[in-house]
Write a structure and sequence with these properties.
Length: 224
């Protein structure tokens, strides 16, 4: 087939899928299945692709060549996260990872702690937003505090307890640092099939009583 026709076909297929992805509702089972089938297609992280790819991913803004973390909020947001470390890059599932960060909290953070999470996975048709299924994917959470196991006063597990980092609401004003620390990432057997191989974009906005506390976005790759 003529190469130009191949690209045209891919282009119009991408438009169709993206249109369905933007309009899909949980009750539209056929559309939801189509999106999830696309997300389940095995994907190779962009950094492992060769220069002979049919599609120029760089010119289409599709490349994820390393872990990247950015602030999508403003300088006035009262929760600031900096110096995020995530190794290896890409993250291997299952396996050992090294996680580290510094955080500054300028106001007490308490219930209700709302979060809006958007996760996109790169497919051969472009970035596709992952639907929210069983509280995994692009989901809205009305109160993260209610989902944290245990209660205020309980001892936090290491390494959080080692470095005095709280793990229950309310989160008090203060500076918190987790130096790069080894974390055991368990087998992906309990995770959805789309969360195994490929490039991802994640954006999380956290707010309380209508006030934004923080917004951060990340690009990362996962391999198994």
């Amino acid at each position: 087939m003529d190469r130009k026709l191949v690209f045209q076909s891919l282009f119009f297929a991408a438009i169709a899928v993206l249109f369905v992805a933007s309009a899909v509702k949980p009750s539209d089972e056929a559309s939801l299945r189509m999106i999830m089938d696309l997300l389940r297609v095995p994907q190779t992280p962009e950094r492992f692709k060769t220069e002979t790819n049919e599609v120029d991913f760089q010119s289409h803004g599709l490349q994820v060549m390393k872990f990247r973390w950015d602030n999508c909020g403003s300088a006035e947001d009262p929760v600031k996260v900096k110096n995020v470390t995530l190794l290896p890059d890409p993250v291997k599932l299952p396996g050992d990872a090294k996680l580290g960060f510094t955080a500054q909290i300028f106001t007490t953070v308490d219930s209700p702690l709302k979060a809006q999470v958007v996760i996109k996975k790169k497919t051969f048709l472009g970035w596709i937003e992952v639907p929210c299924i069983d509280n995994v994917g692009s989901c809205s959470y009305s109160d993260l505090c209610s989902k944290i196991p245990g209660k205020q006063g309980d001892t936090c597990p290491p390494p959080l307890s080692t470095y005095g980092i709280p793990c229950h609401c309310p989160f008090r004003v203060g500076n918190y640092t987790l130096p790069p620390t080894n974390v055991d990432i368990k087998s992906t057997g309990g995770l959805p099939s789309w969360l195994e191989n490929g490039d991802y974009q994640v954006q999380a906005t956290v707010s309380s009583n209508g006030t934004r506390l923080a917004c951060y976005k990340a690009e990362l790759s996962l391999t198994s």
